[in-house]
Amino acid sequence: MNTLEADEEAKVVVFDSAVEGFFLNHSDFNAKIEDLTAIPQGPTGLEAWPDVLVRLTRAPFVSIALIRGPATGNGSEITLACDMSFASKEKALFSQWEVGVGMVAGGGPMARLPRVMGRGRALEVLLGSDDITADLAQAYGYVHRCFPDAELDGFVESLASRIASFDKSAIANTKRLTNTTLPEDVEIAEGWDACIKSIGRPVPQKNFKALFAEGFHKPGDVENRLGYYLGRLNR
Amino acid sequence: MNTLEADEEAKVVVFDSAVEGFFLNHSDFNAKIEDLTAIPQGPTGLEAWPDVLVRLTRAPFVSIALIRGPATGNGSEITLACDMSFASKEKALFSQWEVGVGMVAGGGPMARLPRVMGRGRALEVLLGSDDITADLAQAYGYVHRCFPDAELDGFVESLASRIASFDKSAIANTKRLTNTTLPEDVEIAEGWDACIKSIGRPVPQKNFKALFAEGFHKPGDVENRLGYYLGRLNR
Amino acid sequence: MNTLEADEEAKVVVFDSAVEGFFLNHSDFNAKIEDLTAIPQGPTGLEAWPDVLVRLTRAPFVSIALIRGPATGNGSEITLACDMSFASKEKALFSQWEVGVGMVAGGGPMARLPRVMGRGRALEVLLGSDDITADLAQAYGYVHRCFPDAELDGFVESLASRIASFDKSAIANTKRLTNTTLPEDVEIAEGWDACIKSIGRPVPQKNFKALFAEGFHKPGDVENRLGYYLGRLNR
Q1: How far is the C-alpha of B149 from the C-alpha of C88, rounded, in Å?
Q2: Residue A12, SS3?
Q3: Residues facing residue B14 across a β-bridge
């Protein structure tokens, strides 16, 4: 983010995945929580992850998420922090899975989802904690649009190149003026705090163990169909 | 609402109708207005009906409306106050019919509709005062989704059971954090005051009489196609 | 606007175009900028164009845009300031083209678009600066609904007559209560200032020359497919 912010020429940044079959999924729950909480606050005064996401929304360049695979937790949160997002109709999945395991999400979806799809549909996504298909994501406004997989790269390349041919001052000022509709930083901060407090509670700790026993954190069915496995956890 | 709020175990509440052919329709306009206005204020400081609706939106449990029939006036308002709503494609109808009779709606739709579908489409619903089909309601975000009637109960049962299997603290904290996008109570209060002031004016009083003469308040065509009859009132 | 505001009987105003093939397009860029900036502020304290648009949103009557042709720049801005908008499926096009030429839009779309379609899709419209079809405009909530061209006039006439048969006090009070979701005037004011500052910069001045050389401001391909020509400007 520091590098991008320092680049006065940057107009458009496209985020896609180098990992076949995934956009970006959840955090590493084998890591020590102290390794996460020890990262210094960013320049916004927010903790590292929400700091990066908030700076992305305020940056004078344009960010586009190109999604070809599950966007779970962090992957959904960076999608929502990007200015635009386009998805593969066949391969993209969206999920804020945190409540399903007993946690609160930390990267701002309680603040951002209601502002794109209304509070009710946002609660369906957040509290249902299920995998959302690209078609439903498009209908709800979770993602801008989905395209047949073969057409996705061409569309994003064309839109990114088009915007990059325009004047940076016009881009930056126009984006700045839409930013009045962003949530306040304190709202993002409070979401992060609720997330960190939730992780250590007994319910998620028990659920993590059960998920790890079934194959969580490894390529395979639990990661591919996390929503299904969350629904079985406490039955 | 007192009972629900006091129930520390409650995670999900589903509202459906015990009356075949209706979800919930408008108030009883044969009742004395004093019987309504004499109900004490609720704990929020709002009058009884908006008090219940506002508390529903802030409650630590999840509320789901299951709609199989017309949701007119109060029925639409409780739908909008629920966290989620799902409707029968064939049987649901939505209506804020009040302007059509010369009133202002009292249970918050001027505050809630713009926040789910934008101010313009909200004005179309409110000022058009017509019956909105389930398909259009879904397209506008008035309801989350509509399903073929035979699939509706199964979907809602599955979603409600799923959420009820999750941790209450995670549910309550996640919901609390989306509540920053709720309207302020004073906005709901002002809507209620405008409603009460409007009821006694000559135009709605004249229109009520005309509607009663045609069969208003009884099972039949006026209640089933209220939008149609409102459009004929002053022609 | 003065005339309309003074008309105590006016309930519904429909804006359509007297020019076959267009709704309303952009400003006259052959005019002197001083002729624009010399127009006195309106009663809201805003400059003339944003003043008219803001008063339209606050007026006690209902405004409906009927769109049969491109709505570019000013045409899009008046559409967004109207309470409702309906479009011809075959003939309507929507465009905030300003960033494509190196300008910032001046009539409030940075404030209004995010409130109807979310900030992200609003940025796609604003920064992509491309022609948006009626179908996509409907899916994004840019316009309320589109209809086959042959059905458009009938639908709008029916809705406008229906609302005009209702009580003005009920209409005006209901509209007033949805206006809490309007952007603040200062947000519109800042957009206008950014627009005026942007026009004189070298990039748009160079681009205007290039567009005029290709046929800008005359009936023909540049005006009909402005999005296409903007994409070629700096390649």
Answers
A1: 32
A2: strand
A3: B64
What band does B234 get if pLDDT is binned at 50, 70 and 90?
confident
Give the pLDDT confidence score for residue C234 in this predicted structure.
85
Say if residue B153's pLDDT is above 90.
yes
Query: Are the CB atoms for A63 and A84 separated by under 8 Å?
Result: yes
The H helix count followed by the E strand count for chain A is: 13, 7
pTM confidence score = 0.97
Given a cut of 90, whether residue B207 has pLDDT beyond it is yes
The DSSP code sequence of A192-233 is HHHHHHHHTSHHHHHHHHHHHHHTTTSTTHHHHTHHHHHHHT
Q: What is the dihedral of CA C212, C216, C220, C226, to 10 degrees?
A: 120
Residue for token pair 């998420």: A65
Q: Tell me, what DSSP letter sits at residue C74? A: H
- Report the first-to-last Cα separation within chain C, whole angstroms: 42
In a mutational test of the A interface, the residue from C95, C119, C195, C197 whose CB has the highest number of chain A CBs within 10 Å is C119
pLDDT value of residue B71: 97
**C77, C90, C151, C184: which one is catalytic?**
C77
Catalytic site residue B47?
Answer: no
Q: Name the minimum distance, in Å, from the CA of B67 to any CA of chain C.
A: 24
Q: What digits encode the pLDDT tens for the residues C38-73? A: 999 999 999 999 999 999 999 999 999 999 999 999
Spell out the SS3 assignment of B146-206: EECHHHHHHHHHHHHHHHHCCCHHHHHHHHHHHHHHCCCHHHHHHHHHHHHHHHCCHHHHH
Dihedral of CA atoms A235, B3, B5, B10 in degrees, nearest 10, equals: 0
User: Mutating which of C136, C162, C168, C171 best tests the B interface, going by the most B Cβ atoms within 10 A?
Assistant: C162
Where chain A has pLDDT below 70, the residues are none
Contacts of C178 (CB under 8 A, 6+ apart): B110, B113, B114, B119, B122, B123, B126
For A160, residues 6+ apart whose C-beta sits below 8 A from its C-beta are A12, A14, A62, A64
| Interface contact C187-A177, CB threshold 8 A | yes
For residue C174, give the nearest of B110, B118, B203 by CB distance.
B110
Q: How far is CA C67 from CA A74, A194, B173, in A?
A: 41, 47, 45
Q: Which residues of A touch B178 (CB under 8 A)?
A: 110, 113-114, 119, 122-123, 126
d(Cα C178, Cα C188) in Å, to the nearest integer? 18
Distances (CA, A) of C103 to A20, B22, B184, C228: 40, 53, 37, 17
Q: Does residue B177 have a pLDDT over 90?
A: yes
Residue B71 contacts residue B24 (beta carbons within 8 Å): yes
Q: Which helix (H) or strand (E) holds B132?
A: strand B132-133
Residues constituting chain B: 235
Contact C166 B127 (CB under 8 A): yes
Measured in angstroms, the CA of B195 and the nearest CA of chain A are apart by 25
Q: At what angle do helices C74-81 and C109-128 cross, to 10 degrees?
A: 140
Interface of A with B (CB under 8 A): 98-100, 102-105, 110-111, 113-115, 117-124, 126-130, 183, 187, 190-191, 194, 198, 201, 203-204, 231, 233-235
| β-bridge pairing A132-133 and A93-95 | antiparallel
**Gap between the Cα atoms of C161 and C156, Å rounded:** 8
Query: Rounded to whole angstroms, what are the CA distances from C93 to A34, B23, C21?
Result: 54, 39, 10
Is the pLDDT at B235 greater than 90, yes or no?
no
- For residues A115 and B180, the answer to whether their CB atoms sit within 8 Å is no
Is the pLDDT score of B183 beyond 90? yes
